[in-house]
Amino acid sequence: MRIDVRLTPAAVRDGDVQGRAAVVIDVIRFSTSVLAALEAGAAGVLPAPTAGKAAALAGSLGRSDVLLCGELGGRKPEGFDLGNSPRGFTPGRVSGRTLVYGTTNGTRALHRVREARCVAVACLANLGGVAGRLRAWDRPALVVCAGREGKAGLDDVWCAGLLVDRLEDGGPVEMDDGARLAAGAARSLGRPDRDALATTAAGAALVEIGLGEDLQMCAAMDRTDAVPVLADGRLTLADAAG
Questions:
Q1: Is the dihedral of CA 128, 125, 224, 21 positive or negative?
Q2: Domains of the chain by start residue, with CATH
Q3: What is the pLDDT of residue 133?
Q4: Could you give the percent of the chain with pLDDT greater than 70?
Q5: What is the pLDDT of residues 26-44, one digit of tens each?
């Protein structure tokens, strides 16, 4: 199979996603949090490019069964129901609810690939599940790292490289330079854990604002085979989305 990796969303060119299977990675924390929310029973997630656009969308939908989620500067914006912490998405809080979600990096990246033939969200927790989904889709894959504030993020590149390794385990893989770089980084760095993620720029920033406890969930590798997928602008788990 073919796999290309873009280290930032800005590196995705017009036409790159056409007919392809796209994967968005934002380990710290959008990908990890969306997975947690859907596993906790959320009815679906409506991603918006920014927190401001999420607020506007939530307002237009009404708030009876809608939760407004996201972050600015890593923190929950004023008036939001939930931030971007995976620890906040418990069954008691989100089960049966639709989440409207806007973040600085992850939802922007997702917006960039929304025209792809298939779109999945990956993090360390569901690497095996995403690799299996890509093989089942049997299309050239484009993996997009959300990064941090327009720059490449080591946590996302690390995860992308581990995903490339998983795909190589399943048979021959044709890679672009981005995929080779990511795979090389992952092999050099080894298996990530909470302390390793804390040394990345995104992890250090999270610790600085007092949310370092989130890194434990972000580092929980291969915890599940569940895969969030995007269809008609809505994220649900793959088995429910078809």
A1: negative
A2: 2-226 (3.90.1560.10)
A3: 95
A4: 99
A5: 999 999 999 999 999 999 9
Contact 157, 145 (CB under 8 A): yes
Which residue carries 């690497």 as its tokens?
127
72 vs 66: CA distance, rounded Å: 20
Residue 152, token pair as written in the block: 């490449």
Q: What does the block give as tokens for 131?
A: 């690799």
Angle at 56 between CA 153 and CA 16, to 5 degrees: 40
Contact 74, 206 (CB under 8 A): yes
Of 66, 26, 68, 28, the residue nearest 51 (C-alpha): 68
Q: Is the dihedral of CA 51, 162, 158, 194 positive or negative?
A: positive
CB 205 within 8 A of CB 104: no
Instruction: For the chain, give percent helix, strand, coil, nearest 5.
Output: 45, 20, 35
* DSSP reduced 3-state for 175: strand
Asked if 175 and 183 touch (Cβ cutoff 8 Å), the reply is yes
